[in-house]
UniProtKB/TrEMBL annotation:
<keyword id="KW-0813">Transport</keyword>
<dbReference type="InterPro" id="IPR003439">
    <property type="entry name" value="ABC_transporter-like_ATP-bd"/>
</dbReference>
<feature type="domain" description="ABC transporter">
    <location>
        <begin position="4"/>
        <end position="239"/>
    </location>
</feature>
<keyword id="KW-0067">ATP-binding</keyword>
<keyword id="KW-0547">Nucleotide-binding</keyword>
<dbReference type="InterPro" id="IPR027417">
    <property type="entry name" value="P-loop_NTPase"/>
</dbReference>
<dbReference type="InterPro" id="IPR003593">
    <property type="entry name" value="AAA+_ATPase"/>
</dbReference>
<dbReference type="Pfam" id="PF00005">
    <property type="entry name" value="ABC_tran"/>
</dbReference>
<protein>
    <submittedName>
        <fullName>ABC transporter ATP-binding protein</fullName>
    </submittedName>
</protein>
<comment type="function">
    <text>Part of the ABC transporter complex HmuTUV involved in hemin import. Responsible for energy coupling to the transport system.</text>
</comment>
<dbReference type="GO" id="GO:0005524">
    <property type="term" value="F:ATP binding"/>
</dbReference>
<keyword id="KW-1278">Translocase</keyword>
Length: 253
């Protein structure tokens, strides 16, 4: 069981604050949606909490160990991180890219052990990529490539999934499919912290919402408690009707 904790975590770029004294924790059994407008600090919060971006204050830990001090392979065994930008250095087959998710266990494409190969097959099947397994990644659509990267994260079979806009390039069908897979991952004992801009998807699937505005966390709690018309106005400057988990955005304020 993996737990990610941030305590008074701050990030600066020069004199500019990117994250200000953020506190949160995410563990097994939780689907936490990180919500906020562009520029709120969501990506910097994810990266700093994982020790991938230098914090200017506070502390982040993974299973009570300082995130910034973990070796990359040890971090990758505990947390599967899917960044917003996912460049590929060179074209490769879908299967080989997904197999990179097993690198933390000493595996590499072309020389997978039985356990690693099984993990790759499960990830391909869950994301519906079996028929594309031997396609070159430079022949894929943007949505197909997004699913490849998500499958790579799944193949690691880490205890926690941290994903930055994992459904951004997907059509509605595959958005739901990815969200269903995350739910299944959590039901099997994992936890997830996911940046989402589609508030309807977030409201439908999340067990908790963390709301950010202007570098700060302004709310953290169950969907039913934090998803309100007032919160939508405060964070996104929009008028909205909220009934339970249903949202209807009426326009800008």
């Amino acid at each position: 069981m993996t737990e990610l904790i941030a305590e008074k975590l701050s990030v600066h770029a020069g004199q500019t604050a990117l994250v200000t004294e953020a506190d949160f924790r995410v563990g097994a059994g939780e689907f936490v949606a990180l919500i906020g407008p562009n520029g709120a600090g969501k990506t910097s919060l994810l990266r700093a909490s994982l020790g991938l971006e230098k914090a200017s204050g506070g502390l982040a830990s993974i299973d009570d160990e300082n995130s910034a001090e973990l070796a990359p392979m040890e971090r990758a065994r505990r947390v599967a991180y899917l960044p917003q930008q996912r460049p590929l250095a060179w074209p490769n087959t879908v299967r080989d890219v997904v197999a990179l998710g097993r690198y933390a266990y000493g595996a590499a494409p072309g020389r997978l052990g039985a356990q690693d190969a099984d993990a790759v097959e499960r990830a391909l099947t869950k994301t519906g990529l079996e028929k594309l397994a031997y396609r070159q990644t430079d022949t894929l659509s943007g949505g197909e490539l997004a699913r490849v990267h998500f499958a790579r994260a799944l193949a690691s079979e880490a205890g926690l999934l941290v994903a930055d806009e994992p459904v951004a390039a997907l059509d509605p069908r595959h958005q739901f499919r990815i969200m269903d897979i995350i739910q299944q991952y959590i039901a099997a004992g994992g936890g997830a912290l996911v940046v989402l801009h589609d508030l309807s998807l977030a409201a439908r699937y999340a067990s908790r919402m963390i709301w950010m505005k202007d570098t700060r966390i302004v709310a953290d709690g169950p969907v039913e408690d934090t998803l309100t018309a007032n919160r939508m106005a405060e964070v996104f400057s929009v008028r909205a009707k909220v009934e339970g988990r249903a949202i209807e955005i009426e326009g800008a304020i």
